[in-house]
Amino acid sequence: MNIEIKLQVQDLNARYAQAIDDNRLEAWPDFFTEQGRYRVTTAENFERDLPLGLIYATSRAMLRDRVRSLRDANVYEAQRYRHIVGSPLIAEGEGAAVEAQTSFIIARIMHTGETALFATGRYHDRVVLDGGEARFAEKVVILDSRLIDTLLAIPL
Amino acid sequence: MTIPIASRSWPAEGLTRVPYWVYSDRDIYEEEQARIFRGATWNFLCLEAELPGPNSYRRSSLGAMPVVITRDKDGKLNAFENRCAHRGSLLVLNESGTARDIICVYHNWSYDLCGNLTGVAFRKGLGGKGGMPADCRPENHGPRKLRLATLGGLIFGTLSADTPPLEQYLGDEIVARIRRVMRAPVKLLGSYSQTLPSNWKLYMENVKDSYHASLLHTFFTTFRLNRLSQKGGIVVSSSGGHHVSYSLAADSGGREYEQAGMRAAQEGFGLEAPGLLEAVDEFGDGIGLQILSVFPTFVLQQTRNSLAVRRLVPQGLDQTELVWTCFGFETDDDEMTERRLRQANLIGPAGYISMEDGAAPGFVQRAVTTAPDLLSVVEMGGASVASEDNRVTEAAVRGFWKAYREQMGI
Predict the structure, then answer these.
(1) Residues with Cβ < 8 Å from B114, sequence gap 6 or more?
(2) Which of A97, A117, B191, B388 is the most exposed place for a label (fewest CB within 10 A)?
């Protein structure tokens, strides 16, 4: 195993999670390549090969649109996440890409003080070195449960 | 707070007022289960496409009551209560699957796919000892069977013998608008669900409330995609309980959002990737949005090319599960499927124009639980419960309460 690649993916995951947890959503699209894909789905859909996502984007521009909508358009109560991201399991991908699978759990902290386990699942990522920087060419968020509490605003 | 339903009376103003105790009284919740969900109403159970072949089953519910829907070996649809005749255990635990018969895990009592009891383990005892008395008829305690009716691939069920035939229950206008969408064999795209922190009725009111759409959901106006001139209206069935809210896409080519989006983007507003909204006029009538509801808890949604059925499962006074199943048609090509998936960003718990609907009913629930004797005001568009050619009205909300009061006898 190439320990350097593993560390690069681990570092990418850590920076990704911290940006979201620190409410720096404007930085979120930059973790993806220009044509990067992002999809949030459920294990049920994934296992049955059903393509539906809760969120589905095929470019950084679409991710930027989502951030702007969350900032300026959508109405939801103040909340934040805390991601705990596991150690990535690395497999060689096509060409220069690396396939990584990583477990996560996310707690949601509401402005009322209520803290609850909000989501668990795994990331199926395709990571590429893009201008010296590791970025997601694809990130599929596979939720263990099909059930979302109330709404899903902030990306996972 | 709980007051016997017989001593409850509706405000003198009629349908323009809704007393808040309807959302917070436990007796009312239990009465609804009996009088509405197990009463003379048709409840959406699932799509026919969710029972793909012979010997398949799927769980669903009639209000809070768990039910099983099956397609038996001859392809016939059946539905019955998910409850064993013996000790009342759930019969089917998996969400869906295939089986020739259904066997209760608790004591291995077995049933055919029509819900008939076919076997009782050790009925005659073992070695002449134990077993059930010869005159005991456990068959008489079997799970209650539902009557079923289908329309355009949608399966509805009812427990009551008094429910009128489905098409009569819906009325011609609603039937026509269901058929408009359900025009070809369905291809499932996937599903998900969300827990709403509110009474089931608050979500149904939200669905029927065409007045809130451009006010609570500011996605379209923020990105300058909204057309106030968009023609539309609502249809309220004669029972009041079913409705359709619709609006026309501004041009039949279906590209006005994209073009408006690009214009706004050049001015520094708008979407960077307006292709999200690129749509085709697949029904050929220029209608870009059709939200249809059937009393008590079914929603059929066409948002541009994003199609979905939604089903509500009451899980208590102030908690409801909302199940979404998105679909296209078997005739869709890859491009059409991709379009539906992209536009699914508009809907569901993370949807640009629907995420607020997960929370708004909960905002009401949290505020009115401590105001049971106060009233909400439902006077947009006057007191009418009739169809209108505009959407700045609460006529369909009043229609819901008309049907509700009829079923509940209050």
Answers:
(1) B70, B72, B78, B80, B145
(2) A117
Contact between B359 and A45 using a beta-carbon 8 Å cutoff: no
The CATH code of domain A3-143 reads 3.10.450.50
User: What's the burial of A35, exposed, middle or buried (CB within 10 Å: 0-12/13-18/19+)?
Assistant: exposed
| Alpha-carbon gap: B355 to the closest alpha carbon of chain A (Å) | 6
Contact check, Cβ <8 Å, B219/A55:
no
What number is the average pLDDT over the span B215-236?
A: 79
pLDDT in tens, B367-403: 999 999 999 999 999 999 999 888 889 999 999 999 9
Which of A56, A62, A147 is closest, CB to CB, to B344? Answer: A56
- Name B308's bridge partners: B301, B326
- The residue written with tokens 């541009």 in the block is B304
Gap from B244 CA to chain A (nearest CA, Å): 25
* A120-156 confidence digits (pLDDT tens): 999 999 999 877 899 999 999 999 999 999 999 999 9
Q: In chain A, what are the domain boundaries?
A: 3-143
Instruction: Please name each of the domains of chain B with its CATH number.
Output: 43-148 (2.102.10.10), 171-408 (3.90.380.10)
How far apart CA A36 and CA A17 sit, in angstroms, is: 17
Answer whether B149's CB lies under 8 Å from B165's CB. Answer: yes
Q: What was the ipTM of the complex prediction? A: 0.96
